[in-house]
Amino acid sequence: MAVKLEYVWLDGYKPTQSLRSKTKLVKEFNGKVADAPGWSFDGSSTEQAPGGSSDCLLKPVFVVPDPQRKNAYLVMCEVMNADGTPHVSNGRALIEDDDNDFWFGFEQEYFLWDNNINRPLGFPAGGFPGPQGPYYCSVGAANAYGRNIIEEHLDACLDAGLNVEGINSEVATGQWEFQIFSKGAKLAGDQIWIARYLLERIGEKYGVSVNWHCKPLGALDWNGSGMHANFSNSLLRNAGKKEIFDKVCEAFRPVIKEHIEVYGADNHLRLTGKHETASIDDFTYGLSDRGASIRIPVGVAANGWKGYLEDRRPNSAADPYKVAARIIKTVKSVKA
Ligand code: ADP
Ligand code: MN
Ligand code: MN
Ligand code: MN
User: Fold this and answer.
1) How far is ligand 2, taken at its centre, from the CA of residue 4, in Å?
2) Predicted local distance difference test score (pLDDT) of residue 291
C-alpha cells in the first residue's frame, strides 16, 4: 500500500510565518529522513518566490510517524532556493549548533479560539467571562475549556515521538501550554513546529482554531502568550559559579534589539512590565524573577550554579528556529 508523506514547511509571510503542507504518495518508505525524497512547491503562492521563477525546494530534515493517518509520516522540511542555498525564510539554516551542545526547552502558550464569536474558547458570545484567577491549572467545566482537544493533541505528540515534558491550562480563559525539551537546537525547533502542526490539524476536527498571537485580547486585562526559551550549553551546565551565569546574562544586554527582532511579532503589546513580563526596552535578569527578561531558575543556585537560563521574552508566535539561532549566537560570544 502506498505510504503518505506529509511535507510540512514554513511559508514566507511577514511578520509571522505560517505552516503549509502537502501530501506525497510513495510506494514504500522506511521512516528515515535520509530516505525521504526531496520535493518542491510553488513559492509564488506562499510569498517565497516571484511568479516567473516560482519553484522552491523542500529539503526533508525531520521525520516522525503521523499519529492520525494510516500508513503515514510527517516530514518537516527546510525551504531552499532552486540553486540549493537556504531560502531567506529558512530560520533553521541559521542555527549554529552542529555538535548539539545546546539544549532547549520551549514553553509554548496559545489560545484555543472560537471562530463563531472570534474570542477565546470559553468566552460567552458578546461578553466576557469572569476575570483571570480560576483558569490557571484548573479543572471543571466552569473554568477549563477545550480539554478534549489538548488531550488528543498530547497523545498525538507522544505517538509521534515528540519529547513533550508537560501541559497545563494557563492564566486566561481558553489558554493552554505545552513544553517540549530537546538536546540539540534544530531538533527542538523541529519538534515545536510538528507539535504546532498537529494542534492546528486536530483543531480542524472541532472547528476550533489556534490563536498564536502574543496578545489576542489586546490591551484588555488578560494575559498574553509567550514561548519561554529555556536553554543551556555545556558552559552553563558545568559552570559551578555565579559569575558565569552573570557573564552569559550580561552578553544579552547589548543585543536587546537583535533578540526582540526574532522574538515574535507585536511583542510590545505583551512585554509591558505587567502580567509576569519585563518591559520590551529593558534588560533585566535575576534569580527566580518572573518579572525579569531572563530568569535564573532557583534550582541553578541550589545546584551549585549549574544548569540553564530562561529567556522569558520570546512570544507564542515566534519561530523557535530563529529564537534558538539568536540565543546561540549570543551565548557563544561569551568566553569563559
Ligand atoms: P516554568 O513554567 O516554571 O517556567 P516549565 O516547567 O513550564 O517552567 O518549563 C521549564 C522547561 O525548562 C522545561 O521544558 C524543561 O525541559 C526545560 N529545562 C530543564 N532543564 C534544562 C536544561 N538544562 N537546558 C535547557 N532546558 C531545560
Ligand atoms: Mn511553564
Ligand atoms: Mn506558562
Ligand atoms: Mn517559564
Assistant:
1) 34
2) 93
Identify which of 107, 312, 313 to mutate to test ligand 1's pocket (most ligand atoms within 8 A of the CB). Answer: 107
What are the tens digits of pLDDT across the range 26-44? 999 999 999 999 999 999 9
Asked if residue 179 has its Cβ within 6 Å of ligand 1, the reply is yes
Residues 164 and 244 in one domain: yes
Tell whether 255 and 190 lie within a shared domain. yes
pLDDT at 1: 87
Q: Which amino acid is located at 81 in the chain?
A: N
Which segments in the chain show pLDDT lower than 50? none
> Domain with 29 in it: what CATH number?
3.10.20.70
* Co-location of 52 and 113 in the same domain: no
Query: Which residue's CA is the nearest one to ligand 1's atom 3?
Result: 297
Closest atom of ligand 1 to CA, residue 236: 23
Q: Is the pTM of this model over 0.90?
A: yes
Residue of minimum CA distance from atom 19 in ligand 1: 105
Q: 89: Cβ below 6 Å to ligand 1?
A: no
What residues does 9 pair with on adjacent strands? Answer: 20
Q: In this structure, what CATH number is given to the domain that contains residue 168? A: 3.30.590.10
Which domain does 327 fall in, by range? Answer: 103-332
DSSP class of residue 39 equals E
The answer, yes or no, to whether any atom of ligand 1 lies below 6 A from the CB of 181, is yes
Query: Which ligand 1 atom lies nearest to the CA of residue 312?
Result: 4
Q: What angle do CA 128, 279, 314 make, to 5 degrees?
A: 80
Q: In the chain, what's the furthest Cα-to-Cα distance?
A: 60
- Omega before 15 within 30 of 0, i.e. cis: yes
**How many domains does the structure of the chain reveal?**
2
Task: Give the per-residue pLDDT at 297.
Answer: 97
Which runs of consecutive H residues, i.e. helices, occur in 57-169? Answer: 147-159
